[in-house]
Amino acid sequence: MGKGIEGGGHHSEVTAKDYTDPPPAALIDFEELTKWSLYRASNAEFIATLLFLYITVATVIGYKSQVDPAKNADACGGVGILGIAWAFGGMIFILVYCTAGISGGHINPAVTFGLLLARKVSLIRAVMYMVAQCLGAICGVGLVKGLQKSYYVRYGGGANELADGYSKGVGLGAEIIGTFVLVYTVFAATDPKRNARDSHVPVLAPLPIGFAVFMVHLATIPITGTGINPARSFGAAVIYNKEKAWDDQWIFWVGPFIGAALAAAYHQYVLRATAIKALGSFWSNPNV
């Protein structure tokens, strides 16, 4: 103990950072377009979003079929809103676990946007991911419609729409807050500082992310059907293609992107105090 305090070298070791922040990603890196890893990661995002939309939309359609009064069904039957929320949260847990080592497991343009703002991914990678996610969502919902077309059309196609009785402002607010919770959780679960200092409490990153999706769905299904993922809302709107779904579509892009931006700013500049640290390094640098 005494040696650690007395010796200058030992003291510096004690006070040194016990974690390493990865360097910021280049904003535009055209060399990335020549790397197979980018296309492999984009493919992983495409397939993951396809599977995500197929399972979750099929769950929504199945639930509505199970409680349809026209079929003399039990109004309390089916998986219920709780089951739908579990389907969304559980699939995110599974798919983030499967793809985290390949693409980072975004499966959501809002998550990708937040990580872009925090310089965790390049602009080129972010655009590739978002395109792959939207295409995957369209294909996933298309698969649901192709396998059960009559049910799909009859029960709303799993499309996100603002519920009756709620204003567009309320819907937008719900999407902003819901996406903030999700993206904030993503940053917290993948923070190298936390992983280093809380290593005695191992945390499987996909688990809190999946739970965040689950909890947000419980709160916002009655309001917007829960978007918090522009690809999910866009894919369902493209295949369902009804006026109401398109009229409300802007809410499911603007809200998640604002929520993601706020979460990125809060984590990077408030919790991690990136700007303050940078300013401190500037003033303490004798060469400046």
Précis, in short:
This protein is mainly α. It has 14 helices and no strands.
Written description of the protein model:
This protein is mostly helical and 288 residues long. The chain is built from 14 helices and no strands. It has helices at residues 2-6, 8-15, 36-66, 80-99, 109-117, 123-147, 149-154, 168-189, 192-197, 206-224, 230-240, 243-247, 251-271, 274-284. The protein is globular, with a radius of gyration of 22 Å.
Q: Which H/E pattern describes the elements?
A: HHHHHHHHHHHHHH
Cα-to-Cα separation, first versus last residue: 37 Å
Poorly predicted runs are 1-16, 278-284
Task: Give the overall silhouette.
Answer: globular
Structural class: mainly alpha
What profile does the largest beta sheet have?
none
